[in-house]
Amino acid sequence: MNNVVLVGRLVEDPKVIDTETGKQMTSVTIAVTRNYKNPEGIYETDFIRCILWNGIASNTCEYCHMGDVIGIKGRLQTGSYENEDKQKVYYTEVVAEKVSFLSSAKPKETTEEVKNEKSSKKKKADE
Fold first, then answer.
1. What local confidence, expressed as pLDDT, does residue 124 receive?
2. Which superfamily is assigned to 4-126 in CATH?
3. pLDDT less than 50: residues of the chain
4. What are the sequence ranges of the domains in the chain?
5. Which residues have C-beta within 8 Å of that of residue 13, sequence separation ≥ 6?
């Protein structure tokens, strides 16, 4: 059985790539904090590459941005390639089968706008 479930923050804004076969894909990296501290008392973070296809890719690109928390259910996939120095490089990535949008990292401007709007509504109600 090959199942992976991850929850982490997007490291950068996702971008859709149209492949030669007509499919859409995106590659995202999520920062997943470990649930224990190292000997120095710090929570370490793993940066995990995930591949998203078609509807999952386009929806994630449309609704998610850097800093958002997402959940990914998928499977591990390994592969290799030869770099320009003729050395074999191995990699492991997660191929997403389902993505859940868990929280949004709201920009500071939006938070300030909401506070100002609430403040002005309160002033009008008090008048």
1. 53
2. Nucleic acid-binding proteins (2.40.50.140)
3. none
4. 4-126
5. 61, 64, 65, 66
End-to-end CA distance of the chain: 65
CA distance 112 to 99: 30
Cα separation, 100 vs 96, in Å, equals 11
DSSP 32-89: EEEEEE-TTS-EEEEEEEEEEEHHHHHHHHHH--TT-EEEEEEEEEEEEEE-TTS-EE
The DSSP code for 20 is T
**pLDDT at site 103:** 85
Q: What is the pLDDT of residue 104?
A: 75
